[in-house]
Amino acid sequence: MYIYLPIAEVSVNAFVLLGLGGLVGILSGMFGVGGGFLMTPLLFFIGIPPAVAVATEANQIVASSFSGVLAHVKRKTVDFKMGGVLLIGGLVGAALGVVVFNYLKSLGQVDLLVKLCYVLFLGVVGSLMFAESLRALRKSKQVAVSKPRKKRGLVHSLPFKMRFRVSGLYISIIPPIVVGVAVGVLAAIMGVGGGFVMVPAMIYLLGMPTKVVVGTSLFQIIFVTAFTTMLHATTNYTVDMVLAVLLLIGGVIGAQFGTMIGAKLKAEQLRILLALMVLLVCGKLALDLIVEPAELFSLGVAGGH
Predict the structure, then answer these.
(1) Alpha carbon 33 to chain centroid, angstroms
(2) Distance between CA atoms of residues 76 and 78, nearest Å
(3) Rg, C-alpha atoms of the chain
(4) Contact assessment for residue 33 and residue 224, using Cβ atoms and an 8 Å cutoff
(5) Which residues, 6+ apart, have CB-to-CB distance to 273 below 8 Å?
(6) Helix axes 267-291, 36-45, angle to 10 degrees
(7) Which residue range is the domain that position 239 belongs to?
(8) Which of 20, 102, 230, 267 places its Cα 20 to 30 Å from the Cα of 191?
């Protein structure tokens, strides 16, 4: 059953979109990521112009993340105080990101920028996460990984300290705000929740326990992506509501299943799976940029004029 997307100006199979939404919803519930890092490139692959994919995917992440957060709130694995601090930075970053996005759109360079950003970020983050997860798996066989790491002096030496009881931390609010800003910029330019950057940063930089990282990440993602969607809709007019609704339905259902699967796997196993997923998408995107598929690029040009 093909359906016409008015803003994207293409016809796509509705069941394919529902399936993609469900797949990303499962990832959202399992890993605490909005899933945009995977969904946005998948939308490129089925012929959605990058500018529309970025703006619309931010909208879909709101729903799948909200669905995932509800499950974590029941388990009391959300640090609302830390989420609030991350959110302050996230809103600032999102506003900055939309300004950059609009400027590049006016130059006609936004499609290429989005794809290059994906290859760069997914490659770096995926490699780092995979290496760190392998180390954590080796350590877990000898010593409990939940022990605090020794090298975390910088986070503890900065001013403006705050106590985060749920996470069991007493650290400066500067690093969480910086992480939030970075994630906000990514949300605006790449149409992602930023979980693939935020989750590793919360574990390795802020020293948060893995069990509260997923729920807290999803909590912050909801508000940053909602704000990003609103900015894109009012300044770019690139949010395709038909596309968003189909992805949203699949995402909400998938997130509930993902949370159940995630609860049965060890933290180290989850991190390795996420790292592999990130590297896989990065490889496919890089290949597409090198091969230069004529159809995708002609669609991007048509959407831009």
Answers:
(1) 5
(2) 6
(3) 19
(4) no
(5) 30, 31, 265
(6) 30
(7) 2-304
(8) 267
What lies within 8 Å, CB to CB, of 200 at 6+ separation is 125, 128, 129, 132
DSSP 293: -
pLDDT band at residue 13 under the 50/70/90 scheme? confident
In sequence order, the β-bridge partners of residue 10 are 5
DSSP state string for 170-235:
EEESHHHHHHHHHHHHHHHHH----HHHHHHIIIIIS---HHHHHHHHHHHHHHHHHHHHHHHHHH
What is the CB-side half-sphere exposure of residue 66 using CA atoms within 13 A?
Answer: 14
Bridge partners of residue 2, in order along the sequence:
13
Q: Do β-strands 169-172 and 161-164 pair in parallel, antiparallel, or remain unpaired?
A: antiparallel
Report which DSSP code applies to 46: T
Instruction: Assign 145 a pLDDT band (cuts: 50, 70, 90).
Output: very low
Among 51-55, 125-129, 148-152, 161-165, name the one with the lowest average pLDDT: 148-152
Q: 55, 191 in Cβ contact below 8 A?
A: yes
Residues 201 and 176: their CA atoms lie apart, in Å, by: 9
Structurally, the chain folds into a number of domains equal to 1
Calpha distance 127→165 (Å, rounded): 32
pLDDT of residue 92: 92
Q: Are 155 and 207 in contact (CB under 8 A)?
A: yes
Q: Is the pTM of this model over 0.70?
A: no
Nearest in space to 86 (alpha carbons), one of 168, 142, 164, 4:
164
Structure tokens at 153: 């002096």
> For residue range 206-251, what is the model confidence (pLDDT) as tens digits?
778 777 887 888 888 888 888 887 887 787 677 777 887 888 788 7
Residue 243: both structure tokens together: 């596309």
pLDDT beyond 80 at 264:
no
Residue keyed to tokens 């940053």: 224
Name the token pair of 93.
């970053």
